[in-house]
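Following up on my earlier thread - several people asked me to post the actual chain instead of describing it. Fair enough. Here it is, all 267 residues.
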Amino acid sequence: MPEGHTLHRLARLHRRRYAGRPVGVSSPQGRFGASIVDGRVLKRTEAHGKHLFHVYGPDAIVHVHLGLYGTFTEFELPVAEPVGQVRMRLVGATHWTDLRGPNQCELLTAVEVAALRARLGPDPLRRDARPDLAYQRISRSRQPIAVLLMDQRVIAGVGNVYRAEVLFRHGVHPLTPGNRIDRALWDVLWSDLVLLMRYGVKVGRIDTVRPEHLPAATGRAPRQDRHGGEVYAYRRAGLPCLVCATPVAVAELAHRNLFWCPGCQPS
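Reply from S.P.:
Thanks for posting it. Predicted structure:
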């Protein structure tokens, strides 16, 4: 599932290409009430965690959650005939965009969007984020910090990659109970998430490895993975840690694979 940086990149891209002018909106698949916003001016786009919002007015906001299989495909004009199950198509002055396979694509009002966002935790990529709210929930919980970081009600936008990597970078064992994370450590974790995720928005991939551990510095081969980017722990099970050479461990936690280094992240 795309992590928060992907949705913020999409919000920026769609803002640049479509905002401030009328947009042609259709649903070739016929499963989305596109006619309500077709031809309206797209006022703005924004993301909160893994949710994308195209705002046409207080009574018409398109909410998209990509889920596991949703994808946006971007093209330059001219427009071509739809291929496959296109849930939503946007057509602007210079580009057109197709959305396929999202978990959600629906029209909401501003009140409904506010209610949805109220159920989400703070997003490290939003300027209005309040990390103290996330810490209140973490500090009161006995659940492992690895579970809490993935709970979108606690923090919005963090997925399996950023979860594994931020815990590695600060030597935190993933099964540490939330109420054992003190405020100083939380502030460091939050600040690092902001830094890593902002870089993800900039470059379009997740890079978490410090300069001294990059292939150019160590002589190792670059990572080959469809997710791209250089990482310390995620999907490196059994491989030597880039810092201490201990094999990276993997286990299932809350139905997701959890990656960590037993040497750098002792229990």
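DSSP finds seven helices and ten strands in the chain. That should answer part of your original question.
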